[in-house]
Specification:
Pfam families: rve_3
Number of helices: 3
Domain Integrase catalytic: 12-36
Helix content: 40-55%
Radius of gyration: 21 Å
Protein name: Integrase catalytic domain-containing protein
Distance between the termini: 74 Å
Length: 67
């Protein structure tokens, strides 16, 4: 077994576990002390399916031509 492959797998598992804890189980002060999972479970399904408001949206603006 290659040490690099084993080490990379261990790193991936550690990062995945940290992300799960941070994003699902750790209380966040910005959410009133709730975990993200608890916070999102309070929203209706229609709101959860809405794309993030932070995503970039392309809005075309045209300036009137100067004569």
């Amino acid at each position: 077994m290659d040490l690099g492959t084993t080490l990379r797998g261990a790193q991936d598992q550690t990062i995945m576990a940290w992300r799960q804890t941070y994003n699902r189980r750790r209380p966040h002060s910005s959410l009133g002390g709730q975990t993200p999972a608890d916070f999102t479970s309070q929203w209706p399904t229609s709101v959860q399916a809405t794309p993030s408001l932070q995503q970039a949206t392309a809005i075309c603006f045209t300036q009137p031509e100067l004569s």
